[in-house]
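Hypothesis: this fold can be encoded by more than one sequence.
Test: take the structure tokens below, design a sequence, compare later.
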């Protein structure tokens, strides 16, 4: 995956001078094609689409307003849903003391290489270095043990919207793998395992909805293997996406049942209704700005970004198309009226009135930025009391009478949202290959498939598959065992070990 620091090509910008020069040449096209050089294409799209800007510290990126608007739309949805579940927002510090960090051994071993440390204050060395949170279990749980005393203090259900830092990796990729990213992290404690189990799945369903209903990306819900689960947890569930162009899975979001491991370490005990001392059951769950990178990878094309209407900060861009002797003012007024009508109906619409760019330049610019629907208004449209609508996803054009504007634009946006999901699902499903033997597995892996295989569910076997498939592309591993299990006829054998298979599991390379 390309992550080289890129200079943004300057796509114009009106200069001074008396005579207005209208920029006609687009100069906006991408230099790389998605199917030919995916890594370079991706780097170019996120910069030219004005989602990120490269920063002078490798692996850190500036998230521009075009990105933040998408993040805020998902945040608004998720925040309202968890509040319905009686989960409350809080904020804990960014810094962690080493003593606390090292308390949960398995957990911190999982994160050790990625922890960034503060060692100096001004010119003086700190007596004890301070860690920057890679995740907040060890930050929060000492206080859970203080706040939870009796069964009436349970459940304790907190969430925070924050940033975390994970330093160690070789291939920074905007959104997908960055040294600092934004996320929410939920941390909850219950009196019983049943309550914890129930919440894990309830949150996972919200993550599925973020991907499928908002980002128009199909995901598989399932359980991670013991090897791939959250370090220090009891079990991990996830929603898994897949990028057909690279043949890689992406862990979309995770919902972990931590069991009582952390309760033991941090002494989070309570007196139950019978007056006995008991340990709490805990969960943690998170989704991050990685979601946005998955969206770009799945829907983007050779013209740039393609944004699903539900998350696009601008759903409709209105472009005036005046000709030499046209009633220019009439066209501009019609554009303003169109935007106002759409805004009043709750549709996020804007007009592009910049007079130093030609309509063709503007078309390319807004296509690069992925705006779902373009509305053009020229002299003919003005005369006929209509507008011309052009879809970003398939370039289909349609004339809409201004009298039916809102109704038809709403229908078009819904249709675009659904079409993006359907197209992504069709592409992903075409990549799924069911294999039963090792040879079939190797062949499918070579063809960049998402592999569904019967497995004996043994850690040693998974380690063996990893070491046998190690190569330039990275090793194959389990992505998840889907909750929706196909039938496993008796006598089915594991593709890798030949032992009796216990379940169907998705395998592949991943980000």
């Amino acid at each position: 995956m390309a992550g080289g620091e890129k200079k943004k090509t300057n796509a114009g910008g009106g200069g001074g001078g008396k005579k207005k020069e209208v920029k006609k040449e687009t100069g906006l096209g991408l230099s790389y094609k998605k199917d030919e050089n995916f890594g370079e294409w991706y780097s170019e799209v996120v910069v030219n689409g004005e989602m990120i800007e490269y920063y002078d510290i490798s692996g850190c990126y500036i998230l521009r307003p075009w990105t933040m608007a998408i993040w805020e739309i998902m945040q608004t949805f998720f925040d309202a849903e968890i509040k319905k579940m009686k989960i409350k927002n809080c904020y804990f510090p960014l810094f962690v003391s080493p003593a606390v960090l090292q308390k949960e051994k398995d957990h911190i071993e999982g994160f050790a290489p990625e922890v960034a440390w503060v060692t100096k204050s001004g010119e003086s060395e700190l007596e004890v270095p301070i860690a920057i949170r890679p995740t907040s279990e060890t930050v929060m749980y000492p206080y859970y043990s203080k706040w939870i005393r009796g069964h009436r203090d349970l459940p304790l259900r907190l969430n925070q919207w924050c940033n975390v830092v994970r330093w160690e990796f070789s291939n920074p990729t905007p959104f997908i793998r960055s040294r600092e990213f934004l996320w929410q992290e939920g941390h909850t404690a219950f009196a019983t395992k049943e309550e914890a189990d129930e919440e894990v799945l309830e949150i996972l369903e919200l993550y599925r909805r973020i991907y499928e209903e908002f980002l128009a990306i199909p995901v598989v819900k399932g359980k991670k293997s013991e090897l791939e689960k959250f370090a220090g947890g009891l079990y991990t569930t996830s929603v898994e996406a897949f990028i057909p162009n690279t043949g890689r899975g992406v862990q979309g979001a995770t919902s972990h049942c931590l069991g009582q491991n952390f309760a033991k370490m941090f002494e989070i005990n309570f007196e139950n209704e019978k007056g006995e001392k008991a340990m709490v059951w805990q969960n943690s769950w998170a989704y991050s700005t990685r979601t946005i990178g998955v969206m770009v990878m799945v829907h983007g094309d050779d013209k740039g970004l393609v944004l699903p209407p539900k998350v696009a900060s601008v759903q409709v861009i209105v472009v005036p198309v005046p000709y030499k002797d046209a009633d220019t003012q009439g066209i501009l007024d019609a554009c303003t009226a169109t935007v106002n009508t759409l805004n009043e109906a709750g549709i996020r619409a804007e007009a592009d009135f910049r007079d130093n760019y030609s309509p063709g330049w503007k078309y390319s610019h807004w296509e690069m930025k992925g705006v779902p629907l373009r509305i053009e208004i020229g002299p003919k449209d003005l005369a006929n009391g209509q507008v011309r609508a052009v879809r970003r996803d398939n370039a289909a054009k349609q004339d809409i009478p201004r009298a039916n504007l809102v109704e038809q634009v709403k229908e078009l946006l819904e249709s675009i949202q659904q079409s993006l999901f359907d197209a992504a699902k069709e592409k992903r499903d075409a990549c799924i290959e069911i294999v039963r033997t090792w040879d079939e597995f190797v062949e499918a892996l070579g063809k960049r498939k998402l592999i569904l295989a019967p497995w004996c569910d043994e850690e040693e076997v998974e380690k063996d598959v990893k070491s046998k498939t190690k190569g330039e592309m990275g090793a194959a591993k389990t992505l998840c065992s889907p909750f929706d299990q196909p039938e496993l006829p008796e006598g089915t054998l594991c593709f890798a070990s030949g032992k009796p298979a216990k379940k169907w599991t998705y395998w592949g390379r991943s980000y």
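The first strand starts at residue 52 and ends at 54. The chain is about 35% helix and 25% strand.
Hypothesis status: open.
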